[in-house]
Amino acid sequence: MLARMKQIWTEEDGVLSFEWTLLLTLLTIGIVGGIAAARDAIIDELGDLAEAAQGIDQSYSLSGYVITGVFSSASSSFTETAADAVVIDCARAVAPFGQVPSMDGT
Predict the structure, then answer these.
(1) Whole-prediction pTM value?
(2) What is the DSSP-derived secondary structure letter of residue 96?
(3) Which residues of 34-57 are buried (b: 16+ CB within 10 A; e: fewer)?
């Protein structure tokens, strides 16, 4: 019985397959976490870009001109008010990874 226990203790067959399985599992978890972090960063940057595009002042003014006796143009202008460019930043709801937050706040 003691000899069999010693043989089991010193057995090395299959050790490499277990180590590779463990390594690949940890690597997969790390890759998934990294991709999720990259996704969140890209979404935030695109949201910032959308806010910047909305914040561009699109006011303009054109003075009228007259070509003597042939053609004339009236002046034109447009002024964008602050109410036209309201940006609502929808912050991401904090929820455990992979779970959608519920609507009732629980």
Answers:
(1) 0.48
(2) S
(3) eeeeeeeeeeeeeeeeeeeeeeee
